[in-house]
Design brief:
Layout (H helix, E strand, L loop, with lengths): L1 E2 L2 E7 L4 E8 L2 E7 L8 H14 L2 E2 L5 E4 L1
Parallel strand pairs: 1-5, 2-6
Antiparallel strand pairs: 2-3, 3-4
C-alpha cells in the first residue's frame, strides 16, 4: 500500500455530502463519502477519509487528515 501525503475532507453543498481529497505527490484523488450526516464528528470523518484512501490502495495517517466544517 502506498503512503498518501495528506487528505482533506469537506462538505459539498451542491451534492449535500462529504467528500475527501487524498494527495499523493502531485496526484489528487477525490471520492464522495456517502451516508455520513453533515453534523458528523471529526473522528467519524477522519475514519471515513482513511477508509476511502485505503479503498484506493493508499494509506493516510489520520493526523494528516484536515477537516473543513
Amino acid at each position: 500500500m502506498l503512503n498518501a501525503d495528506s487528505a482533506h475532507v469537506n462538505w459539498d453543498t451542491d451534492k449535500k455530502r462529504w467528500s475527501v481529497r487524498v494527495k499523493i505527490g502531485e496526484e489528487v484523488i477525490r471520492r464522495p463519502i456517502p451516508k455520513i450526516p453533515q453534523n458528523a464528528g471529526d473522528e467519524v470523518l477522519r475514519s471515513a477519509a482513511v477508509d476511502a484512501a485505503k479503498d484506493d490502495g493508499y494509506q493516510v495517517d489520520p493526523a494528516k487528515v484536515d477537516i473543513a466544517h
